[in-house]
Design goal:
Elements (H helix, E strand, L loop, with lengths): L1 E5 L2 E5 L7 H5 L19 H15 L3 H14 L4 H13 L3 H14 L4 H13 L3 H12 L7 H14 L3 H14 L4 H13 L3 H14 L4 H13 L3 H15 L3 H13 L2
Antiparallel strand pairs: 1-2
Helix pairs in contact: 2-3, 3-4, 4-5, 5-6, 6-7, 6-8, 7-8, 8-9, 9-10, 10-11, 11-12, 12-13, 13-14
Length: 267
């Protein structure tokens, strides 16, 4: 699993047919994401107008347009934390991490409980291999009892631990992210992949069952479940899942792979 960042959240990159790419690759709906843009905390109609134009530019990946509009909004209302958060995303996408860190620091100076900014800052530190600092700021994000999406930060901490080679701690964090939010697909995916690589197949089965409950039509997830069942010597259940892949994929690549497993299981 490759570590990748987009929109301030570290994600596990994998192809999931049948799932929304945005729902997986952008697990945290920041300024530009499936979850929609936050409303600027601003009393100035002109600043809000610039902010909205900036969001539109960011959604189109017109980074320079977004940067100019967010800066105009900040000039009108420098005390709005979300404007600093927004412009940090532009800098981050432009690979100007120092300036992104500066803007996130300003957002945190405005609101020391701003969990989303701590979470974003942690992802930048992880990208730069500053793992201990990343874990520290992720911890700051979780100190806020009003943080609406702590599952995101637990997930990001899991990826950080994984990058450090601390797989047991990573697995616990992925599991915790799904306990907090049972509909949090990225947590199940990372948990299932890591548990499988660690040879902890029963845990992998649990993870893939959670994932398939959220996306029953995702054939690659069903293949992961079937393979985990096979590795855990739950042959009857594995056969059932492989046969379903064959029925649903017919002449596709997943069906070809499933047939090969079935040939071994049915000898």
């Amino acid at each position: 699993m490759k570590i990748f960042r987009k929109g301030g959240t570290i994600v596990a990159v994998r192809s999931l047919r049948g799932l929304s790419g945005c729902g997986l690759l952008l697990v945290l709906g920041l300024v530009a994401g499936c979850a929609g843009a936050p409303v600027a905390e601003d009393n100035s109609p002109m600043a809000e107008a610039h902010y909205k134009i900036g969001v539109a530019g960011l959604n189109r990946n017109d980074l320079q347009k977004a940067l100019v509009e967010f800066q105009k909004a900040i000039n009108l209302n420098p005390g709005d934390k979300k404007l600093h958060f927004a412009i940090a995303q532009v800098y981050d996408r432009q690979e100007r991490s120092g300036e992104a860190v500066r803007e996130l620091g300003e957002a945190i100076r405005i609101d020391s409980t701003y969990s989303e900014a701590y979470n974003y800052l942690g992802t930048i530190h992880t990208k730069e291999h500053r793992y201990d600092e990343a874990l520290r700021v992720f911890g700051k994000a979780l100190e806020n009892p009003l943080y609406a999406t702590p599952q995101m930060t637990h997930y990001n901490m899991g990826l950080t631990y994984q990058a450090m080679g601390r797989e047991d701690e990573a697995l616990k964090k992925f599991q915790q992210s799904t306990r907090i939010d049972p509909s949090f697909m990225p947590g199940y995916l990372a948990w299932g992949q890591l548990a499988g690589r660690m040879g902890r197949y029963k845990e992998a089965v649990d993870a893939w069952r959670g994932a398939i409950s959220l996306a029953p039509e995702a054939l690659d997830v069903r293949m992961e479940l079937a393979t985990a069942l096979y590795n855990d010597h739950q042959d009857a259940l594995a056969i059932q899942e492989f046969r379903r892949v064959v029925r649903e994929d017919k002449d596709g690549l997943w069906a070809d792979s499933a047939r090969r497993y079935l040939e071994v299981l049915q000898k």
